[in-house]
Amino acid sequence: MAELDVERFFKRLGKLHSNFLKNNSTVWNGADCLLLHRGPLNDDDPYQKSGLLHQWLCGYELPDTIILLRKDGNMWVLATKKKCDFLKPAADAVPQKSPIRSITFLLRSKDDANAKNYDILWKELSDARINGDKRKIGAFVKEREGNKEGGGLLGPWEKKLSEMIESDPSDLVDISAGVAYSMIVKDPDELDLMKKASVLANKVMKHGYVKRMEEIIDREETITHETLASYVEEIIEDPSKISLKVSKDDVQSCYYPIVQSGGAYDIRVSAQSTSVNLSPDVIMISLGARFCNYCSNISRTFLVDAPKKVSDTYKILLEMQDACLAAMTPGNPLKAVYKAAVRYLQEHGHEHLVERLPKNLGFASGLDFRESSMLLTPKNMSVFKQGMVFCLSVGFQDLELSEADRSAVNDKSPIKKLSSFALLVSDMVAITADNPDVMTKMGKDLTDVSYNINEEGEGSEDDDEDDGDDDESVEAPDAPKGDEKYARSLANQRGGVRQSSRLAKDAAAMQDAQEGVAERERRQIKLMERRNEERLRELARANRKKGDDDNKDQAEELEAYKRTRDYPDNILPNQVKVDMANQCVFLPIYGNPIPFHISTIKNVVMPEGDSATLLRINFYTAGMAVGKDAPANMVKLVQKYAPYASFIRELTFRSLDGHNLTQAFRQISELRKRVRTKELQQQEEADLVEQEKLVRTKNERVPRLADVTMRPVFAGRKTQGNLEAHSNGMRFISTRQEIVDVMYSNIKYAIYQPCENEIMVLIHFHLKNPIMIGKKKHNDVQFYTEIVDSSQAVDNSRRSMYDPDEMDDEQRERQMRKKLNQAFKDFCKKVDAVAKKNGYELEFDIPYRDLGFTGNPHKEMVTIMPTLNCLVNLTETPFFVVDLVDVDHVHFERVTYMSKAFDMVLVNKDFNKEPWRVDMIPNGDKDSIQDWLTDMEITYTEGPMNLNWKQIIATVRADDRFYMNTEEDSVTEKEAGWEFLRMFGRDDDDEGDEEDDDSAFSQEQEEDAEEEESEEEDFDSDVDDEDEDDFDGDEDLEEEGLDWDEMEEKAAEEDRQKRRLGDVDPDEGRKSSNKKPRNGGRRR
What we know:
DNA damage, 6-stranded mixed sheet, PH-domain like, alpha+beta, single chain, Creatine Amidinohydrolase, transcription, Creatine Amidinohydrolase, Chain A, domain 1, 8-stranded mixed sheet
């Protein structure tokens, strides 16, 4: 049976009444009393204000119920007995401090057709008149006609109310805006429901619509917009179709989903899906989902084979959305959002897009999908408040797409036919005290919504047809009709030689592999160009956000005493004294005690003297290496004053009485140790972020994983204990009562690795911000259980393969592995459920074993596996976790025909950090790694030697035009970004195509050519270095025919490459510059 939440009822009713009194003359139109009745249910209009108000107050709709609320806080309810009983707990528990004084119930009476009840209500309405003025009765004016036609209690009441108003002059005023204004700021419970509704819409879009759309495009299916919209609506009504455990009773669609493509677009919320077939060009989708009657909305535009103009305009749209989000802060008027969009377009040279903006950029949402009085228009003076939720909907409509804009698009692509297009992106945004919270998290970057399905050249189809004709023209002599097998065997005979089917398969496989490599190289060249553009924009945004960060790097002046009278009292003129409190050392110079801050002292020693005690103090000075232990501030001070200041390098003191100097030596050493320890601690805690407190789950069962081991450990001890999942995070409690809390909001990636070939099953958390474990900060926390103890002793005696004891051990190990894998898997599912229940996004990744490879990241050969977002090794310590988002480029070193292994360097986007390295990767894994990197849209290059990355990164960090393809004069062309590391560049790619066309050697001729080449290489290897260098130089001049100007330009280019590559042996640099063509290493 339904029950009324009394506390929530009075809280929200009091909020409504207070707003009614405070803003009576504005949004409430000066009403003296409020009629909050609800007419009959109307499924055609689920957003009637009266129904939404009842849901907000009571949690349920109360149809055919009359509610009267006066300014003095007295309330009357006319309804059936069942509804009065539902509200009766509120009448019996009116809070003392509530503005609501009393609740009076009038039971529906069939004897007199409620005439007496109506008279009572009208009398209370009459008493609401103030100072004899004309009475103003507040009601939902637009719903009155429907109430009259519905009959029941409200039909006769509406007719009587009209008659009474005519006889006793009164005015009916609309209170819809006042009710909406009272409900517009959400409480925490409402925000939680809004977030869940947004997550539902996000999941339906990501796992429902996008997956189906990709299937349609891949399979080239024919489907109408209406059919696809119906499919999406069915998922919203039944989320179990995408494996969401949500009750059907709690969800429904806000509106019929809107799918548009093919050039006919309408970005208004009132648009409709048509019966036209879906076209894979610019596809627009909008869907809305309700969870517990709270609404959410999300819109995305997907680009298939998009021309450059469409992609560039979409990037502008995203940047404009960021500008709009920045304006959505408490205190700003709603019109600031529209003005921010216009200002961004005007300041960035996109004025022509201003007229393509819609009339509004969104609306407030909640129980009502679209609150008409809270639109993001250029004139709305309402103010943003914390707790409001808006649908921010930005877009451009009726954008022209000329023939020139479509010229680069493949003729097969449907976008070739578009003459106009539109773009739309909508997200749910909650107004918070700081930055607005975007609750629909689905990716909307260009890489998330772009698809390229017609990248191949136009001539490929013709080539295939020609090949088919050639095959058909080969006729088998004397082949009987219908005997295809015999015909093929005769056709394979060339000049009396029968070709092997195995060799034919090997040749076909090799050809496929070569085509795959060529296709990968082409994709890498395009990817390099796009990544260079993206990095330029990222660096530009980073520079804009940097602000006053440079001031933090300035040196801090040392000041221990402001004046001499602040010196300690025990200071003597000719003695060395240490002030431990102020971290200073007083040294006598010409009889005067001079204070030196402890951070200026590099070291202190006591040399052995003859009869006297010596104390030598060395200071940090310019022109000498300061060392790794030097305080960071002292290094800055030395650099600051080095150009013009004089430094004291060392001071030596001699005394016949060694007591004072010995004591000073000990105190200085101790003080330096304390200061160094404190500085190291500050550096450790510098980037720590204060974590929220753990909210422990109460009154329900807590997911628990017992007897797990944590890494890293506390103080060098193996740390075992239990892991529990609570409302906002997880807590690990060791057997020694040591506690580590891991908050859901601080988890960047969660990884579950089952035990297959390892000795442990584990879950691993890669954190956004480091946490302190013991005395050190860590970005990675892991919990595992060993299947077999790694330190288990192996019996030296030989055992038979049929030994029953060994077979039992293996069986127990298999059962244990299966049991623990299932336990960890179930725990991950429970943690995921708890996190989602409390509004957190937490998904566990499982490493892809098929893509794993062996390598050496930390002086030990381990198995490295990729996950969805990382490249990891989690079984050995230290952990190897590389976030792919932070990888700028990957370079393969020692890639030669002779080596059996190569090295991989992953360059960090932050050039202040060292690149990651993985050494000794087997050559057989290179192609699969490069395919994976290409699929992940990460650029790579390869070379034959190890590079000096410290010098390369320093050069790149100092080059402001590194990702640009021109020098500082903006005219001279250069290789952009990491292209200078490419072993085979664009020219090689073009030459390779020509060589493929010109090659007409038979298999025997190629083998002879390779044998001759190997003989020539053996001969050339016997030539001395001097002759070889001369020969190579002459050969270059003869083959290329360079004049002096071209030779100088080539030499300058090689010098620039050498400077980027770092310290390289001149002979190796010269040899590597003589690149071999790709056709098997042959020279022509």
